[in-house]
Amino acid sequence: MSARPRRGLSRRELLRLVPGAALGATGALRPATPPAASAAAAAPRRGGTFKIPITANVTPWPPIGLIQNLMVNKSMFNGLVRYSPVDWTPQPDLAETWEISKDGLAWTFHLRKGVVWHDGRPFTADDVKFSLDLYADPKVNSILQGNLEPVAGIEAVNPTTVKVVTKQPYSSLIELLCYLTFMMPKHLLAGQEFSRTKFPDAFIRHPVGTGPFKFGEHIVGDHFTVVANDHYHEGRPYLDSVIYKVVRDLNSTVVQVKTGELDIAFPTVAQLPALESASNLYIIERGLMDYRFLGLNHTDPKFGKWFRDKRVRQALAYAINAKGIIGQVAKGRADRSNGPLPPALKAWFVKGAPVFEYDPDKAKRMLGEVGFKPGPDGVLAKDGEKFSFAFFSDQGQPEREQTSLIVQQNLKDIGVDAQFQTLEFNNFMQRERVTKEFSAVCFYYVTPATPDLHSYWQTGGSTNEWSYSNPEVDRMFRDGLSIFDPEKRREHYRKLYTLLAEEQPVVYIYHPHELQAVSKKVRGWARTDYRDALLYLNQVWVEA
User: Fold this and answer.
1) From CA 234, how far away is CA 211, in angstroms rounded?
2) Distance CA 148, CA 408 (A)
3) Contacts with 155 (C-beta within 8 Å, 6 or more apart), sequence order
4) Three-state secondary-structure class, residue 12
5) With contact defined as beta carbons under 8 Å apart, do 127 and 118 qualify?
6) Torsions phi, psi of 523, nearest 5?
């Protein structure tokens, strides 16, 4: 392999694609005016506040993830690279360029010069090494640990050069570094010990990053405010501040974006009628890296022995009316799922992968072939044990609750007694990701924009919440790391995701389209899903 400098979009190219002309083009449901033209006519305005809802309190500690935290983190921290708002390809962030060694075992990143932390200290290669080492530390229990497992060592070559050496060629490293891998200040965090439950209290009270906004105020339970970083390396952001307002109820976010208390909200399909009369809003529809599923705990003490049987998982897939859910819950604004990669990820989506369309009779036959027989109450049983389990989703999410109720009825129709329960969000996350106290969940995952999702599906992967294990899948993910040629890589992952579709490690249901209700006063909001649009928040401005 030849060493080859990598280059993303130039700043001029990026600015032409991202700001100003953001609203109402591709994917817009109801563009009331041609915003591209109006934005082109108006010069960006400095000042003002952008108000965005979050559903839970913020803990700005990058290793732990969670949606409310990463939304704030994206305004205060940078990564080495970030996703393009156009097609999710890796683009420069704190690393201006990068190159790969001939043997594919070393990535060298060349950092921007003159970048400083919010406290004025210089950002250097030592901070990069510290951050990546921290994410990879098993004691920290970061959601990124699996992504960095193939890394053998990190060297700060000089203040603006970092070399990442891997145990084997690692073709997806650059794609995975775009995903939530925020750089953290060594000078404030070194020498401390962190764990799954032990966070740096002083840093969380006053986080320091290199991002376009810096910490302003945190009123727990009410809001988290960031203010403009006058010394941001891409120039001061247009906005004076961003307020992340805690609004736990989705219906309240719809009300508040209509009244102007919020500048953006993320309605469900069912909430769209309530926004139709809002002349102050654009409603935008986007594709995103999101899949909805029925996740089965393969190590559940009672039901794991059945969930590990592919025939049982396939039968459950046939039992669930995914197209009906798309029609009833998503009102058609979703794509049928054949795996974790959505059609929106055009470069990697596998069109021909198997899909288990609704066929309850076939589901019943398959379970009968496995040995399940209906009892006097109609519930299937095997070896004297009923196929009767509880499954969870998180409270306050109407689409997931409606999906769960349909799944419950679909499974009841074939004799499986699945009892749906909602849990408070933090309780749900604790049981799903920490203690593994669940038989099944009806939930969602937003994943990195790459086909290399090894940490989600490999045995022991850090985000393999369902403890799925298949040696062939393990091998194929492992082999995929060594393939750099785009066409060979595409063919390899086509085979892998065809296998995963056949396997149904979880029952794939659908990929939702994201809805954004955005104030017409807002300009420069990037044309992508809102999580990645937040990476370009420095380009957002509001009209007077």
Assistant:
1) 10
2) 38
3) 129, 162, 163, 165
4) helix
5) no
6) -130, 155
Query: What is the band of 64 on the pLDDT scale with cuts at 50, 70, 90?
Result: confident
Distance CA 385, CA 372 (A): 9
Q: What is the pTM of this model?
A: 0.85
Interval 433-490: pLDDT, tens: 888 999 999 999 999 999 999 999 999 998 899 999 999 999 999 999 999 999 999 9
What distance in Å separates the CA atoms of residue 543 and residue 519, rounded to the nearest whole number? Answer: 10
What six digits make up the tokens of 7?
């280059």
Longest alpha-carbon distance in the chain: 74
Question: Do residues 462 and 455 make contact, with C-beta atoms less than 8 angstroms apart?
Answer: yes
Residue 337 CA to its chain's centroid (Å): 16
Q: Of all helices (H) and strands (E), which one includes residue 158?
A: strand 151-158
The alpha-helical segments, DSSP class H, found in 77-200 are 125-136, 145-148, 173-177, 186-189
State the Cα angle at 427 between 425 and 432, rounded to 5°: 95
- Block residue for tokens 């399940």: 372
Q: Per residue, what are the HEC states of 225-253? A: EEEECCCCCCCCCCCCEEEEEECCCHHHH
- How would DSSP label each residue in 314-360? HHHHHHS-HHHHHHHTSTT-EEE-SSSS-TTSTTT--TTS------H
CA distance 61 to 73: 8
Pairing verdict, β 417-423 and 388-394: parallel
DSSP element (H, E) containing 377: none
Given a contact cutoff of 8 angstroms between Cβ atoms, the answer to whether 148 and 448 are in contact is no
For 467, the token pair is: 């403890």
Q: Hunting for tokens 């603006």 — which residue is that?
A: 160
pLDDT at 425: 84
pLDDT in tens, 79-130: 999 999 999 999 999 999 999 999 999 999 999 999 999 999 999 999 999 9
Phi first, then psi: give them for residue 181, nearest 5 degrees.
Answer: -90, 75
| Cβ count near 10 (within 10 Å) | 11
